[in-house]
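Quick question, first post here. What does this chain look like in 3D?
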Amino acid sequence: MLRQTCRDFAERELAPIAAQLDREHRFPAQQVRELGALGLLAVETPEALGGAGLDYLAYAIAVEEISRGCASTGVILSVNNSLYLGPILKFGSEEQKQQWVTPFTTGEQVGCFALSEPGNGSDAGAAATVARRDGEEWVLNGTKAWITNCWDASAAVVFATTDRSLRHKGISAFLVPMPHPGVSLGKKEDKLGIRASSTANLILEDVRLPPQSMLGQPGMGFKIAMQTLDSGRIGIAAQALGIGQAALDCAADYAQKRSAFGAPIAKLQAIQFKLADMSLALESARLLTWRAAMLRDSRKPYSKEAAMAKLAASEAATFISHQAIQVLGGMGYVTDMPAERHYRDARITEIYEGTSEIQRLVIANLLLKEYQG
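> Answer (accepted):
Ran it through. Tokens below.
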């Protein structure tokens, strides 16, 4: 029922305008509010806090179906659910949950996650943003980079170093309202894909926060970030599945309608082999993604499986969208058809929330620990 509800919404409200949103770099504010009304901005959030109270498998299914209609809307959904609400639900106090969770469940407001910086990339432990105590307040200074949703966000989970001598164990997490004195935004990045979601630098200049703005305890920031990214990778895997499914839908539909040599090109073995390989890659990645989500729901270790899911799904999306353009030929290269947008949207799934190279490192490290243990 959830899957069909999300699919119907995506087909009715997102797919018809996805190209326009992409072209205009326009945040889908109305559609986000409608997703909030459906409970999809806070899928795993308990009902008592305004969420849907569902499990992570339901969340993965929802992100896939929404991304199938519009990948940009899918990542907006994913960031609010897993990167913003996720760490507050897990590490926040009851007071913080009331203040920072409930208002972000309806779609009227969305949050963002500020970990990356211009100089650290995949090295999340090398945070140059600092937070120092000044009396009762924390004062933050630094620049965060590649922050999804930031131009449309009303709050951010921000990571800053509170004790440089402890390196990654000296990083803490803070809840920052937006707008707020000292907080500014860089230019919107002109991206290859997912262009309806905003991405920019988040600049912090003497940002003063009360002590209750810290999420968790001092020095817990790196742990919070890594555990949040484990969950977030399932969301990005689901987004990639949605993109891959949309690309396969487009290719299969075109192959049955386009005739060459006196028959639909779907009759040609070369095209059939492409479609078979595309479907195989998609279904394999979907099973990995669902497995990771179910392990998380069962409160079992899932870091390796989340990395596998993200790696498999993102590379599948890139492969499928590439092959879809090949099936469409010249029509795949122009904006008259959605294939080129799927190709552009897919590429980022191999980069954000941990590159494919980082996923391979995570998988290998955890695999070797299993053999050693």
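The first strand starts at residue 110 and ends at 114.
The beta strands are 110-114, 130-134, 137-148, 153-161, 171-177, 183-185, 199-209, 214-215, 259-260, 263-264.
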